Amino acid sequence: MNFYREILRPILFLLPAEAAHNLTLQLLRSLQPNSRLLNLLFGQPISLPLEFCGLHFRNPVGLAAGMDKNASAIPAWEALGFGFVEIGTITSQPQAGNPKPRLFRYPHKQALVNRMGFNNDGCELVAKRLQKLYSSKKPNIPIGINIGKLKSVPNAEAPSDYLKCYKKLYDYADFFVVNVSSPNTPGLRSLQSATELERILVALRSWEAPPKKPLWVKLSPDLTPEDALAATETAALCGANAIVATNTTLDHDALLPYEDQEGGLSGSPLREKAVAMLKLLIRNSKLPVVASGGIMSPEDAAERMRLGASLIELYTGLIYSGPSLIREILNYRQKPPSENKTD
Ligand SMILES: Cc1cc2nc3c(=O)[nH]c(=O)nc-3n(C[C@H](O)[C@H](O)[C@H](O)COP(=O)(O)O)c2cc1C
Fold it and tell me: Which atom of ligand 1 is nearest to the CA of 319?
């Protein structure tokens, strides 16, 4: 029996989406001291180890940013079998985010729309939480910290705002992700332009003494190919080590005619754009790519890896399929190609 799909999901889907999200985090927090119970309910983690950016990953399937913005359930994600976790987005001060409701499910389309707006506890509190966690037990998987800009800070001051977060959280990150692609902070996505991105990355990299931590830049699927390649080139020149492709999209065409909501669209309707961006970057840029966006099945994951993604990340797929999706992806990858339909 699949505990998530048959029992938990039907209950969670009776609740408004954000209430279900909060209840899930609460449940994970209360279960995480007992990783055996989590394994009993959701299955055993699978190892498919690899090295990337000088880090050791248990397997290539990670948790995408936004699911655990405040680093409250890291031991649970590890027990559920993720190969790495990206927490955040975290900002330099606590932020409430946009008014509720701000998260919506579209089950017929296997999609979500969110306009959360970087609701998070702020870097100070998250740093304390991570310090406490690491002093009792350091996770055995890489922990990435995704950082963003406060809504109240103008873009001109973005570099110092990102730097505040970077400094405060530096000791607790195995790698950082610079998020310049969320559609829910007005003007944030213009930080993907070569000049703006350079100012941010130079501020971070020039503060840091060697050996520098792996730094990834997360891009929007809505960039033109020219702008995406310019951002990637700038990222590479400024010492970034990978691109996360992609964040959510503002293009809701694939969602019509369902009742629409403003915000970033994720899940199945994002697949095509995220795959197009991955292909573009793999063909034309030097930086490796971490694939995110519309990875809903083992076939989707296999396609991204075949196209050249170094790692993959899940968010919406986890909501619809539950944690067994991680194992299904890894089992699918381990089978000889003849046994996999699309390989
Ligand atoms: C509710 C929600 C909140 C998100 N919050 C963040 C965030 O804070 N920072 C970020 O970089 N991405 C955020 N994302 C984007 C995801 O990390 C991911 O890149 C995107 O949803 C595409 O992947 P998916 O189709 O597997 O969901 C969020 C996504 C959702 C659905």
Answer: 27
Beta carbons of 140 and 77 less than 8 angstroms apart: no
Query: Residue 1 class from Cβ within 10 Å (0-12 exposed, 13-18 middle, 19+ buried)?
Result: exposed
**Confidence grade of residue 1 (pLDDT, cut at 50, 70, 90):** confident
Kindly give the distance from the C-alpha atom of residue 327 to the centroid of ligand 1, in angstroms, as a whole number: 21
Q: How far is the CA of 197 from the centre of ligand 1 (A)?
A: 20
From 18, 100, 165, 266, mutation site for ligand 1 pocket: most ligand atoms within 8 A of C-beta: 266
Q: Catalytic annotation on 30?
A: no
Please report the pLDDT score of residue 337 as a whole number.
Answer: 61
Q: For 111-156, how does the pLDDT look when each residue is reduced to its tens digit (9 = 90+)?
A: 999 999 999 999 999 999 999 999 998 999 999 999 999 999 999 9
Q: Which of 158, 182, 186, 171 is nearest to 92 (CA)?
A: 158
Catalytic residue among 35, 135, 152, 182: 182
**The CATH classification of domain 3-339, taken from the options 1.20.1250.20, 3.40.50.1260, 3.20.20.70, 3.40.630.10:** 3.20.20.70
Nearest CA to ligand 1 atom 19: 247
Return the higher-pLDDT residue of 119 and 340: 119
Q: Which amino acid is at 308?
A: G
